[in-house]
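Quick review question:
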C-alpha cells in the first residue's frame, strides 16, 4: 500500500505575548497601561523603569513592591481615581441603598472612596461581601484603615495588571481598551 505525501507540520504563527509587548513598549505606553491599573505616577514610573521582566510573576512582584512604597500623597492620588465596586445587575435595590448609606458614612469618616479587591469573591456574594467589609472597616481608626486601603490598592493593581497581561487582547498597544478590573 502506497501512502500519499504527508502534510507539513502545522505551525502556529508566533504571536507576541502581552508581556513581550509590555516590555517592548515605549516608557510612555508602559506607564499609561500601569496608570490604568493603579493611578499613581510614582508607582507606574518605578514599575516601568525596571523593564524588561522575564515573566509575569516577576512583573507582579515588582508591582507589589512598588505599591508598598507609596506615600500618603501617592495613595490619595490613586484613591481619587477609584470608584466603589459595582454590584451585579440583579442585586436588590435594598442592597444598593444599604451600600450607598454605608459608603457615605465611610467616605465622611475617611475622606475617600471605599476600595476593596473582589478577586475570588463569587459575583452572587459580592454585595454581601462589600457591605460587610465597609461596615466592619468603618470602625477602624484612620491609621489602621490607611494600611488596609494601601493593601487593597496593591491587590487591585496586581489583579488588573495580571488580567490585562493574561488576557487575549493586548492592553499595552490598544488605547481604546477599557481599564482592567473596571
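Suggested answer, residue by residue:
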Amino acid at each position: 500500500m502506497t501512502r500519499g505525501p504527508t502534510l507539513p507540520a502545522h505551525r502556529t504563527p508566533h504571536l507576541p505575548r502581552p508581556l513581550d509587548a509590555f516590555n517592548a513598549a515605549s516608557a510612555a505606553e508602559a506607564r499609561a497601561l500601569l496608570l490604568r491599573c493603579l493611578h499613581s505616577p510614582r508607582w507606574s514610573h518605578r514599575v516601568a523603569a525596571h523593564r524588561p521582566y522575564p515573566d509575569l510573576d516577576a512583573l507582579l512582584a515588582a508591582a507589589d513592591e512598588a505599591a508598598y512604597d507609596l506615600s500618603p500623597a501617592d495613595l490619595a492620588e490613586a484613591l481619587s481615581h477609584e470608584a466603589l465596586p459595582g454590584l451585579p445587575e440583579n442585586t436588590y435595590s435594598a442592597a444598593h441603598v444599604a451600600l450607598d448609606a454605608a459608603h457615605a458614612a465611610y467616605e465622611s469618616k475617611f475622606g475617600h472612596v471605599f476600595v476593596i479587591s473582589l478577586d475570588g469573591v463569587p459575583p452572587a456574594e459580592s454585595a454581601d461581601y462589600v457591605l460587610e467589609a465597609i461596615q466592619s472597616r468603618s470602625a477602624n481608626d484612620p491609621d489602621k484603615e490607611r494600611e488596609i486601603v494601601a493593601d487593597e490598592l496593591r491587590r487591585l493593581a496586581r489583579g488588573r495588571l495580571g488580567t490585562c497581561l493574561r488576557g487575549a487582547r493586548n492592553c499595552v498597544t490598544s488605547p481604546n481598551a477599557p481599564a482592567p478590573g473596571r
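Why it works: Residues 55 and 105 are 42 Å apart (CA to CA). Residues 172-182 have pLDDT under 50 and may be disordered.
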